[in-house]
Amino acid sequence: MTKPTIATQLTSLRDTHSTTVTELDKYRLLVENIQDYAIFLMDKDGYIQTWNKGAQINKGYKADEIIGKHFSNFYLQRDKDAKKPERELELAKKLGRVEDEDWRVRKDGTHFWANVVITALYGNDGDVIGYAKVTRDLTERKHQEDTLRQANVLLQQQQKEMQRLSITKDEFISLASHQLRTPATAIKQLLGILLEGFKGDLTDEQLTVIQKAYDSNERQIAIVNRLLSVAQLDGGKVKLQKLPTDIAVLIKDIVEEYADTIARREQAVHIAIPTSLPEINIDAEHLRMALENLIDNASKYTLAGGKITITAKTAKNMLRIEVKDSGVGIAADDISKLFIKFTRIPNELSQKVGGSGLGLYWAYKVIELHGGTMQVASDIHKGTTFAVLIPMDTEHA
After folding, report:
1. Can you tell me whether residue 219 is helix, strand or coil?
2. Cα(92)–Cα(355) distance, integer angstroms
């Protein structure tokens, strides 16, 4: 094997050196021309040795203005006084690197939010010979985060205020309702005495006026009672007393109670409930009032000659009660508003039948307390179906 000459060895060494220089030049050009990051080298005491375009854009200094100066020039005075630059170098020396996000200072004195990474550089002997520092300006992100944080704080404050106002409103409704019910009940008793003739005979004209006053007072008491019930529901004061209940009997009792009213409206009622329907654990009093509301609404919003169908069945461990009418119907856009307090949906009968906008809200909440839900399907001028779904199991029923 031919031994390489000295000339050959020198040529090989020169080629290797040339290749290394070329790679280093490429790396240097890469670092120097990066603009999104400030990248520079510091000696072991923190004095700046190199400077790239990103550093000039980020911090405002030209290379000849900053090379040879200490990197603490970029720190706020409070951080300098607290020896933060020195601490960061010590940590980088100890841990190999240190990362920080905080305010820094540009040449013109303006502040920017910086993400900073300082990496220790080691010589062949393992000692630190300097540091590499990479900085990115995240001021815009910081402003967005601060804005979002402030918006969240404001939203939380508004939510607390809304909760406070809601509690105050419910307390007011409860208090006002109690105060209104007492005189209204007294008026009812006095009017009843007159109608029963305990204060002497009255003319037909007088009886008509007193009857109208009595009926108006009854409506007022009903509204006050509804307000009280809603206030108790919203205040979490309603506790269900659940007992095994025959739903068929409950529904038939309600229909019998409304029989005269429905007859006056010339409407027909059809009940379809299988005899095999099992009992279910419910609060019969509260569920009765919820179903009364649905049946009464079905009658009020159905024209003379219309039909109301009430069904009940079990499916998938759920009791499903449907109240279907052939009434004026509800527009698709209005269905989502049905269970909002004090909301009434306008239609051709709404002015005539009146109402407080609380009945469906109250009924929905009672069904929720039973662990159930309510569904609505409707077509304008064809009718509406309200479906009540309640779990059959005693744990939720």
Report:
1. helix
2. 74
Identify the bridge partners of residue 41 per DSSP, sorted by sequence position: 132
Please give the Cα distance from 160 to 148 (Å, whole number).
18
| Per-residue confidence band for 394, with pLDDT thresholds at 50, 70 and 90 | very low
Contact 66, 48 (CB under 8 A): yes
Instruction: Tell me the average pLDDT across 214-232.
Output: 74
Beta bridge partners of 128: 122
Least confident of 1-5, 25-29, 175-179: 1-5
Q: Quote the pLDDT of residue 10.
A: 47
> What is the β-pairing status of strands 318-325 and 280-282?
unpaired
pLDDT digits (tens, 9 = 90+) for 293-342: 899 989 989 999 999 999 999 988 899 999 999 999 998 888 888 888 77
- Tokens standing for 314? 């079990």
Distance CA 226, CA 274 (A): 32
Rounded alpha-carbon distances, angstroms, from residue 107 to 42, 50, 65, 66, 257 = 18, 17, 10, 10, 86
Reported as type and span, the H/E element at residue 315 is: strand 307-315
Q: Which ranges constitute the DSSP H helices of the chain?
A: 6-33, 53-59, 63-66, 77-81, 84-95, 139-195, 204-234, 247-257, 259-264, 284-300, 332-335, 350-353, 359-369
What are the Cα distances from residue 84, in Å, to 68, 130, 142?
20, 18, 21
The full DSSP string for 186-205 is HHHHHHHHHHTTTT----HH
Euclidean distance between CA atoms 71 and 47, whole angstroms: 6
Asked if 113 and 138 count as a contact pair (C-beta separation under 8 A), the reply is yes
